[in-house]
Amino acid sequence: MQGPVRRILKMPLFFLAFLAALSLSPAGAAPSEKRLALVIGNASYKTGTLARPANDAALIAQTLQAAGFDVIGARDLDGDGLGRTFRDFIDRVRSAGPNAVAAVYFAGYGLQLEGENYLVPIDADISKASDVPLRAVRLSEQMLALAMLHLKASFMILDVARASPFLLSGQPPAGGLAWIEPETNMLIAFSVAPGTVSPDAGDGYGPYAKALAETIREGGLTPAQVFDRVRLRVNELTKGAQVPWDVSSIEAQFMFFERGPGAPPRADSPERTAWMRSQPMRKLGPNDAYMVALIRDTFDAYTDFLADYSRDPMTKRVRALLTVRREAITWRRTYQANTPDAYWSYLERYPRGSHVADARRLLTRLGATTALPLKFARMDYDIPPPLPDEAEYVERTVLMFDDPAFAFEPPPPSPVHFLEPQPSEIVALAPPAAPSGAHTLPTPMFVSLPDYVDVPAYVVIPPNSFIFNNAHKAPAVNATTNAPNKPDGKAISSSASAPGTAGKNNLAEISHLPPSVATTNMLNDGPNPPPLPASPAAREVIKVPQSPAVSAASTPLWADLNPAARQEINEPPSSPLPPIPLLPLWATDYKTSAKPGMVPTMLAPQPTGVPLRSRSAATQSPIPPAQTFPAPTASNRPTPIAHPPPKAADRSGQPLASSVDGLAPSVQRRPQIAPGAASPKPLAKKPCPIVNGQPGCS
User: Fold this and answer.
1) I want to staple 328 with a disulfide (CB 3.0 to 4.6 A). Which of 132, 194, 279, 458 is the partner?
2) Residue 73: how many CB atoms within 10 A of its CB?
3) Is 358 a residue whose pLDDT tops 60?
């Protein structure tokens, strides 16, 4: 009897297992993958407007959209907007789940200070070292926030190759960005090698953005292969003036695009490149060896080239690359140790290096002398000390590979077995028109993808993705008019357009603003702000407009929630309305929205016994002058919401401990409180007014 019962009890489990097996995906199939990206182009700086960042950000945003990314993008963000935008993006990525892929692209100004890298908002006023962590966004905080989400992969791409316009107590900071290590499953990419910069001349698109868009579109490349080719292309386009850098810890399999079986063979196939890369330098010719050294982009690779081709015309250029890499690694190891002995060791190796000022500030912070002592425990670095002939490179605070003083030989063209010529449609890509909306990115002409290139099938495509849905529609798609274009660049009429290319899609559906930026635009409800003045003297003469007179017809929140009180309040007053005093932001929680440039104002509560005006009586009489009304007493002033003063910034030079949600403490942000930026707090209880001698609330 027990046998049949046992068999009956086991049957549901069998059927459940059978159904579960049917529901499983095919063997080896990848789980679904959501892709999200944040793209920012900061151009309208107080120190002067940059020509390319907004265009570059728009081109990368469009490319990532075609690759199935859900992209939010913006341009010209100030300190508050930049911080809120990063928080918006972290929230979006968190909701996507652990198998998501996140990408961040930032174009604009970046700088390094005391071993940390910072992204600079357009309104940053930086004149001394202590200003940097207060008025710029620390990169390590954003990296840690993404790492704590345990994503499949994340990309942090910084197109900040420009020389910094900021001076720290009259001296320029160390040039470029600092060498850093990625967090788990993260790739970090710089548009220039650590410690170097390149000129930001010309309009249109920068070489790094164009090379990145081109290489992503090729398909069939791993992240490492993508950025290896970007380095070769940018080196070629800039004649060696700009050499990008990247470092990766991504272990998961990832491709932006796949190449289908109908793809034509390439002379620069990944397999051939990998074979060339594995060969010893001495078995390659000098030109191929130079290309292999750039592909590897390591200290050992540049050392091997110099050992085998010491008389080649590229020797001096490679020596500069090796010198910069040696100093960057030495400083990184010094900063990680963060001891007086480590900083003294750096000062001994590089008495006139680019990080001397950083080392001295950190020594002072540790309570140690900045002078080199006679005896100390020298740090054991994993690389040898600099050679005497490297002094001309390391003694420059700002190093550019195209400096005429170096007299470098131009690099040879890239052989086709390393890099095929750049596609003509990328070469001829025209710059986009200036955007009309506040903070919106421009809209470049979209060049459609070849039929044999497509997004992997397991990628979850965001809904209503106009660029993705039109990726293969026509030779080029004009995202501004939502119409495909002929090969000559002229738009095809709507009657001849490919299916799905014309319709109700508009720019807002193509490039989404971050939620906090979109909310700010709605509150401002004004045209795009004009460019910021370039000089401080010009900024000083700008007069801040006064806030408009606040309508006396405003009904407080507690009255809207109490119909009985609202009825009594709406009765016409028997006497003229006294003026409403203005209080600072910290004194009360009655907020009024202000447009950019307006002074935030607060409405103080009405004194006890004075009836409030109704909405219908708003135009009957203006608010009398404020000086005729006595200041409210302490008994009728509402309890203010306590906004503690900003804490002192961390001075240790180390990354601050992040909060529970992966975001860094607010002490490193600008010490203003923006709408929606602070966490909500319980409101203080509103005072109950007296109307006609009776309490006005129940």
Assistant:
1) 194
2) 28
3) yes
Supply the pLDDT for residue 29.
Answer: 62
CATH fold, domain 33-265, is Rossmann fold (3.40.50)
pLDDT of residue 690: 52
Q: What is the Cα–Cα distance from 137 to 116, expressed in whole angstroms?
A: 10
- What's the DSSP call for residue 468? H
Q: Which pair of tokens denotes residue 465? A: 């993705």
In contact, 230 and 414? CB cutoff 8 Å: no
DSSP labels for 651-663?
A: -SSSPPPP-TTSP
Beta bridge partners of 72: 38, 512
Judged by average pLDDT, the poorest of 89-103, 157-171, 279-293, 465-479 is 465-479
Within 13 Å and on the Cβ side, how many CA atoms surround 17?
A: 5
With 90 as the cut, is the pLDDT of residue 666 above it?
no
Cβ atoms of 459 and 482 within 8 Å: the answer is: no
**Mean pLDDT across the chain:** 76
| Alpha carbons within 13 A on the beta-carbon side of 176 | 30
Residue 67 clears pLDDT 80, i.e. is over it? yes
Instruction: Outline which parts of the chain fall under CATH 3.40.50.1460.
Output: 33-265
- pLDDT value at position 510? 52
Those residues whose C-beta lies under 8 Å from the C-beta of residue 165, and which sit 6 or more positions away, are: 45, 47, 48, 109
Q: How far apart are CA 158 and CA 334, in angstroms?
A: 24
β-bridge mates for residue 107, sequence order: 41, 159
Confidence (pLDDT) at 461: 94
SS3 245: strand
- Please state, in angstroms and as integers, the Cα–Cα distance from residue 87 to each residue in 110, 378, 630, 666, following that order: 19, 42, 44, 12
Neighbours of 550 (CB within 10 A): 15
Q: What is the pLDDT of residue 278?
A: 92
CA distances to 122, 224, 353, 386, 649 from 323, in Å: 32, 24, 11, 7, 34
- The identity of residue 353, as a single letter, is G
Are 110 and 160 contacting, i.e. CB atoms less than 8 angstroms apart? Answer: yes
| Tokens of residue 330, six digits | 């030495």
Strands (E), 435-568: 445-447, 453-454, 459-460, 476-478, 483-485
Residue type, 633: T
Give the residue, 191 or 644, on which the prediction is more confident.
191
Closest CA to 478 of 440, 433, 427, 422: 433
